[in-house]
Amino acid sequence: MQVRIEDVSPVEKKMFVEIPWETVSAKLGNAYRELGKGVALKGFRKGKVPRPVLEQVYGARVNAEVAYELVRESFFAANQQHSLAAVAEPRVEEATPIKKGQPFTFQAIIEVRGEVVPQDYKGLAIEKRRLDVPETAVDEALAGLRREHTELRPVEGRDVTAAGDIVGLSVTGTIGEHQINQPQFAVDLDDNEREPLPGMREALTGIPIDTKDKQLEITVPEDHKDEQIRGRKATLTVTVLEVRAKDVPALDDEFAKDTGKADTLDGLRAALRKELEDKEQETIDREAREGVLRELIKKNQIPVAASLIERAVEMQYGRLRQMLGMKPDRNNPLAGLTEDLREKMRPAGADEVRGQLLLEAIADKENLAVTDAELTKHVEATARARNMAPAKLRAEWQRDGRLDNVTYSLRQDKVLQFLVGNASVTEVEKLTQQGTPVPEGPPPSHGEEGHVHGPDCDHEH
Fold first, then answer.
1. Is the pLDDT of residue 217 over 80?
2. For residues 70 and 75, what is the distance between their CA atoms, to the nearest angstrom?
3. Cα–Cα distance between 127 and 428 in angstroms, integer?
4. Residue 313 near residue 436 (C-beta atoms within 8 A)
5. Between 455 and 438, the higher pLDDT residue
6. Which residues contact 139 (CB under 8 A, 6 or more apart)?
7. Which of 195, 203, 354, 371 has the fewest CB atoms within 10 Å, i.e. is most exposed?
């Protein structure tokens, strides 16, 4: 086999291939032998059809299948021999028909990763928010913790509802043209944010606990947040099913001990502040990584193979569907991804690929690698979150081929931290620009949904 490679662009090469007749003839022989084993034609026993007859009936199909196989085999051989770093199978532009005694020749375009030489990646100008957790945030966290420890008890010593009660109702009626039929419905007379209708809490406060078929008429304000019921009149019939009073714990040292977070109320507030600051710092750090990735891509608009962009678009579309709670269509996972939508998503897809390639190149240039200790720490943290043994999780990842992908993801994050550490940082109260989202988690493994087979896959083709 003779192979010649020419450069077309930084991410495309053209392959000229000539395969001798001897190789083509052997492939044809194998193909007809396999075909003949299962073919039964009139006048011949199964498996006994002469090759000339098979050629007459199936020649075009066999030639096409053999040509496809020759293209694939020569492509994978050339990819390995010439270290092409191909990212997709070849796109055949021209091929001679298979003819007896003549070599089979074809020309194909191969998309390649291309050489990535990152520029100006140190001193990238980014913004970083100052860590500032106001005391009101601690108050809200304390109130939330207090709600978690609030118990609901049967009402005693009174026969009417009061502020702070949870009232269980059956509700029927209408809101505008909408019919309402809720056999079991709960209203917290203390919760203004989740009030079903404005004025409903007030209408249910101070009514007898054994209320039956009470008529309520409520007009929803014109500025109500729900457009569907804005300005509508609600005519409801309610029956009280159950009333529970809240037993809210006092804010004291005993409450702090009950939470298991501290021994005193002051200690609890300090613990909650630490939790909020840690969480906020994680957000700030993520924003910084996104910002530095955005600046890196802006300064390095490297060419990207079209097939890599299309894969990125499809992955982004899958993440979008998942974020919107849309169930995956296993028969057609790209349902709804029109060409118009693809076109709109391609710039972001191209930048996502650029970012990945640039981070890999910087990792190689700066000798940034994930140590076994760092990988072990990540495995242990993930195992704790999943309430399972670290050894079991690591064995699962190893078995499923995900350990390398986890390492890849950790390495990308390590490069981002390196870039942030070498960036020109301006502290701000509020970010003026949004960064490029950093994909969370490793890319899909072989066999997982979203994985794209290519010449660089570490498995048999």
1. yes
2. 8
3. 7
4. no
5. 438
6. none
7. 371
Long-range contacts of 133-139 (CB under 8 A, 24+ apart): 133/273, 133/276, 133/277, 133/280, 137/276, 138/269, 138/272, 138/273, 138/276
Other CB atoms within a 10 A radius of the CB of residue 121 amount to 22
Separation between Cα atoms, residue 408 and residue 397, nearest integer Å = 13
Q: How far apart are CA 410 and CA 402, in angstroms?
A: 12
Residue keyed to tokens 């299962």: 38
What are the C-alpha distances in Å from 354 to residues 12, 67, 301?
Answer: 16, 35, 7
Q: Which residues contact 153 (CB under 8 A, 6 or more apart)?
A: 244, 245, 246, 247
Alpha helices in 82-175 (DSSP H): 135-148
258 forms beta bridges with: none
C-alpha to C-alpha distance for 199 and 230, rounded to whole angstroms: 14
What is the per-residue pLDDT across 36-95, written as a single tens digit (0 to 9) for each?
888 877 877 777 888 888 888 888 999 999 999 999 999 999 888 888 889 888 999 999
Rounded Cα distance, 356 and 408, in Å: 10
Q: Which residue is associated with the tokens 């109500």? A: 224
**Distance between CA 387 and CA 381 in Å, rounded?**
10
In whole angstroms, how far apart are CA 220 and each of 43, 172, 223, 266?
Answer: 85, 17, 8, 43
Q: How confident is the model at residue 232 (pLDDT cuts 50, 70, 90)?
A: confident
SS3 286: helix
Kindly state the tokens that stand for 210: 């054994």
- For 149, the 3-state DSSP assignment is coil
Cβ proximity of 176 and 217 under 8 Å: no
Domains and CATH numbers, the chain: 2-111 (3.30.70.1050), 116-150+250-461 (1.10.3120.10), 151-247 (3.10.50.40)
Q: Are the C-beta atoms of residues 229 and 205 closer than 8 Å to each other?
A: no
Q: At what angle do helices 403-421 and 390-400 cross, to 10 degrees?
A: 100
